[in-house]
Amino acid sequence: MKNLIKKLVGGAVAMGSAASAFAADAGPDITPITTAGTTVAAIGTAVFAVYVGIKVFKWARSAL
Q: Whole-angstrom Cα distance, residue 49 to residue 57?
């Protein structure tokens, strides 16, 4: 039983040190991707607004 506890504690310590080694990595800079996503969302919204505007105009014209 003592041997099992020592193995579990040793494994937990090893996992903790490995996790802290990866935590120091700041990761890649994703600012350009975020900026492009914002631009794409703005263009998509504009295209959708034009599409809906055309549909509403045709619908209103056919109702008259």
A: 12
Tally of domains within the chain: 1
Range of 12's domain?
2-63
User: What pTM was estimated for this model as a whole?
Assistant: 0.50
> Under the phi-then-psi rule, with left for phi > 0, alpha for psi from -120 to 50, and beta for the rest, what region is 27?
left
Burial class (CB in 10 A: 0-12, 13-18, 19+), 61: exposed
How far apart, in Å, are the Cα atoms of 6 and each of 10, 11, 12, 36, 38?
6, 8, 10, 51, 52
State residue 46 phi and psi, 5-degree precision.
-65, -45
Q: Which residues of the chain have pLDDT under 70?
A: 1-2, 4-26
